[in-house]
Design a protein that fits this description.
alpha/beta; Alpha/beta knot; globular
Length: 154
């Protein structure tokens, strides 16, 4: 199984890049992992922005991918809960899990319908770049839980 992180937005800021890189490298000890950044749409209306970004997102994913959408209205998970979700997808022979961070206005309904799971990190709202760091740390934590390693203390 492979992991792909997709984020709509600008490249990582230096203060975020180091942390994202560190956790991405740690994840690579468990699964092949990659990042894909999608440039924000250059239109002005939120509905059109989401539609344009949806086209780019759909080009980046395969029909067999398991899509996990990060969004405010998704289901909250504990770290062990995320580990369980990843293990369930692995047990179902998922070839690739894609974690998607949408654009500034969220994602189009077509993407919401395509997602197999919608995940909310918190009731708080975070800057997109900080979400990238939190996402990679939590996926690494989930991997360490599945490997029964001591990074996560219960």
């Amino acid at each position: 199984m492979k992991l792909l992180f997709i984020s709509v937005g600008k490249p990582h800021e230096p203060y975020i890049k180091e942390g994202v890189l560190t956790f991405t490298q740690r994840i690579s000890h468990y699964y092949p992992v990659d990042w894909q950044l999608i440039a924000p749409a250059k239109v002005t209306e939120p509905v059109l922005i989401k539609k344009a970004e949806a086209v780019s997102i759909l080009k980046a994913i395969q029909p067999t991918d398991v899509l996990i959408l990060l969004e405010e209205t998704g289901k909250m998970l504990s770290s062990p809960g995320l580990a369980k979700l990843i293990q369930q997808k692995a047990n179902q022979s998922a070839q690739r899990i894609v974690f998607l961070i949408g654009g500034a206005y969220g994602v189009d309904e077509e993407i919401k319908k395509r997602a197999q799971f919608s995940w909310s990190l918190s009731e708080l709202v975070f800057p997109h770049m900080l979400v990238r760091l939190i996402l990679t740390e939590q996926v690494y934590r989930a991997c360490s839980i599945l490997a029964n390693e001591k990074y996560h203390h219960q």
